[in-house]
Amino acid sequence: MTDGVFGRESGHEQVVYCHDRATGLKAIIAVYSTALGPALGGTRFYPYSDENAALDDVLALSKGMAYKNALAGLDLGGGKAVIIGDPATHKTEALLRAYGRFVQSLGGRYITACDVGTYVADMDVVARETSFATGRSREEGGAGDSSELTAFGVYQGMRASAEHTWGTPDLKGRRVGVEGVGKVGRLLVGHLAEAGAEIVITDVDERAVDRVRAVHPSVEVVDDTATLIASDVDVFAPCALGGVLDDDTAGLLRAKVVCGAANNQLAHAGVEKLLQDRGILFAPDYLVNAGGTIQVSDELRGYDPDRARLKATSLYDTAKAVFALADEEGVPPVTAADRLAERRMSEVANLRSILTVR
C-alpha cells in the first residue's frame, strides 16, 4: 500500500499493486472489507489515463462491493480489481494467467469475477492459476455470464421503485430510458419489453443499438445520454459507466425514478439530495445491480440457477425496505441503504468476539 492510498483515507483493509514485466500486466487489487467473509468483486480491464485514475476507480468500486454484498445478504466482503490497459490489444492468455497468480497469492482474501472488459472465457483462463475465480463457464463448472441475473435484479428493483412511486409494480405503459445496451442493458430491455413498457435507448456503440433493434424493432433510439436525460421518460436506467448523475444532469432529469445497472452512478456526494429535493426516487445502484454478484456467489456453493434466481428476486423486497426506511428517517434511499449495509457489517463482525472451535 502506498502513501497515496493512505492519503485518500479510504478505509480499505488492503490494496495490492501487481506488475509482471514479462506479460505487461499492471493491475491493482483492493480489499475494502472482509467483515462478512472473503472479499468478492469483479476484475475491470480498462485503458485508464494513468495509475491514479485506476486507483481511484478500484477504491470506489471495492467499497461499493462491500456494501452491495452486505445489503444483498451475502456472507462476503467487498473487493475489486482493475487491470490497466486496452483489453482489445493488451489482453493475452499469459497476462490473464499472471493475474490469476496474483489473485492466488492473496490466499482467498479476494475472489474475482467478470466486470467491464472481462468475460466468462477470461475467468476460465484466470481460474487455471487460482482457486478464487468465479463467473466461469458452465463447461468449467461455473454459472456462465452473470449479466442475465444482473438485469433481472435491476428489473426487480425497478418494479419496487414503481410501486413506491406510483402505487403499483406494473411497468406496462411506463416510458423507460435505458442508457447503455451492452451486456446488461440489452437484457434489461428484454424484461421491460415483456412487461409492456415503452422503451427509449441510447449507446455510444451503434452495433449494440442495432442488436437491440433487431429483436425489439419498436424501441426508440436517441442520439446520446444528454438527450435521453432530457427526454420525457418515467424511469431513467443508467447501464453504462458511472458518474452519469451530477449537479447538472440531476437538474435536467425529467424521470421520476432512476434505477439502473451502472456502478457509482452519482458523480459525487450530494447528488442524491438534489434528486430527493426534486422528488426523484433514486434506487441505490449497488442494491439493484446485485443480481450478478448473487449469481457468482452461488457458484462458490455449486451453482443452482433456481436458488440464485430466487435470491435475486428478493432484491424487490430489499428495495422496498430501503425506501420505507428512507421515508421513515427522512433521508435519501442511498443513505438508508448505506445504514442497513453498515449495520449488518458491524453486527456480523461483532460475532468474531465469540470463540468457536471447528
Automatic annotation (TrEMBL):
Q: Which residues bind NAD(+)?
A: G180, V181, G182, K183, V184, G185
Q: Which GO MF term does the entry hold, naming one?
A: oxidoreductase activity, acting on the CH-NH2 group of donors, NAD or NADP as acceptor
Residue spans making up a coiled coil are none
Q: Which InterPro entries match?
A: Aminoacid_DH-like_N_sf, Glu/Leu/Phe/Val/Trp_DH, Glu/Leu/Phe/Val/Trp_DH_C, Glu/Leu/Phe/Val/Trp_DH_dimer, Glu/Leu/Phe/Val_DH_AS, Glu/Phe/Leu/Val/Trp_DH_bac/arc, NAD(P)-bd_dom_sf
UniProt xrefs under CDD domains: NAD_bind_Leu_Phe_Val_DH
Task: Write down the SUPFAM superfamilies for this protein, in alphabetical order.
Answer: Aminoacid dehydrogenase-like, N-terminal domain (SSF53223), NAD(P)-binding Rossmann-fold domains (SSF51735)
Could you list this entry's UniProt keywords, alphabetically sorted.
Answer: NAD, Nucleotide-binding, Oxidoreductase
**Keyword NAD carried by entry:** yes
Gene3D superfamilies assigned: Leucine Dehydrogenase, chain A, domain 1 (3.40.50.10860), NAD(P)-binding Rossmann-like Domain (3.40.50.720)
Annotated catalytic residues:
K80 (proton donor/acceptor)
One Gene Ontology BP term is:
amino acid metabolic process
The Glutamate/phenylalanine/leucine/valine/L-tryptophan dehydrogenase C-terminal domain covers: 144-353
A Pfam family name for this chain? ELFV_dehydrog
The entry sums up its family as follows: Belongs to the Glu/Leu/Phe/Val dehydrogenases family.
Q: Give the protein's recorded name.
A: Valine dehydrogenase (NAD+)
Q: Which organism is it from?
A: Prauserella rugosa
